[in-house]
């Protein structure tokens, strides 16, 4: 039995195979196609949607790990990385080469193949997702053929939902490694719901509880190459200090309750007392301490979640982002819906990927998270209604009620994607019910 990270999706594949090389993947696809079985590559299972679910063959790419080479030209370096590489490993191997990803991605476990398939993003007005860094893709198509995706089709392959084939390797544009300073600070919600806030730093985000007046914010600034060592705490120290501060403020110690990093991470409750949640949340929102830390971007942003949750995240046009976020917070508060975790707000640059939710428009991301063990349906359904009404497109990895009719209406380059899909997977070996539901057959 396979289960995703949140525990909300499971399936029983006919087989799970772990090929060791490119020809192994080709063989798996050919044999499955002959038997009429579906093939589904699977990464770390960190998607909340059913994209990785199959009753066919799961292809585990964990043997396809690591950076295999570098290239690019002076000032524009690239690396080739295998699809099963986790982001933690990618960050570490890049750091060994004095390189880094430009996208501020904070999660360790997702694989390059999975993160690209769904268009994994961080937060920054002019920063793209991991998909935006793709300059080349090698995959095994639905006939078992090894193919390097042509430049003209790259915008289909950079965010493909796994519909084109099993990605083996991607060439990614990277940047020189550098140190940054991250600042975490409470700010009035009204300030966060103003466009100026989002242009204030290269990496910036906020987390807001529906009825709170204070938002928890986090931003990142680059440090000059020879900046003197500062008084800042290092990343681990800052996280510890933040946790202690929250525990002191809240003044309660609940077994199983934990206050990890408020942004990105969790604030409350796994097994704990639901009635404490609102109190805890309000207290967290009143925190008055600024915490800074310096280090490489992936280290200072790292915030492993302390509780499991379900999530819906939508990409709104930047023009409706703040109005949509405000309306969502009001709707959740008015309906008395307890989210348990703050609504997370982030921004991103327009994406060229034909199926990336930020395709063609500056984007504001709105994520609603509900801890596992609570009834997530009323909260998520309320969020879908508001975010859809503001022109949102759901993150492919998140829970949503999105349909193929929505995709047709919201993605102008869908016909181009379908043309490439017909070429790469004419027999629909990689189709699943979840893919059919949003892409059609
Ligand atoms: C705690 C948590 C925090 C998160 N934070 C963020 C965030 O900050 N930003 C964000 O954008 N997302 C976030 N997500 C969602 C997450 O980015 C995606 O779920 C993740 O990137 C998917 O990677 P994975 O390896 O887990 O893929 P899986 O979930 O296993 O698979 C996802 C899709 O990718 C396909 N796939 C996997 N490998 C391949 C391959 N080799 N070739 C072709 N297709 C493949 C699968 O078939 C499936 O369709 C978060 C999720 C969690 C649980």
TrEMBL record:
Source taxon at top rank: Bacteria
Compositional bias ranges of the Basic and acidic residues kind: 237-249
Gene3D superfamilies for this protein: 3.30.465.10, 3.30.70.2520, Uridine Diphospho-n-acetylenolpyruvylglucosamine Reductase, domain 2, Vanillyl-alcohol Oxidase, Chain A, domain 4
Chain segments annotated as transmembrane: none
Keywords associated with the record: Oxidoreductase
Domain FAD-binding PCMH-type positions: 9-177
Signal peptide span: none
Keyword Oxidoreductase: yes
Region Disordered, annotated ranges: 1-25, 224-250
SUPFAM superfamilies: FAD-binding/transporter-associated domain-like
PANTHER family: D-ARABINONO-1,4-LACTONE OXIDASE (PTHR43762:SF1), L-GULONOLACTONE OXIDASE (PTHR43762)
Protein name in UniProt: D-arabinono-1,4-lactone oxidase
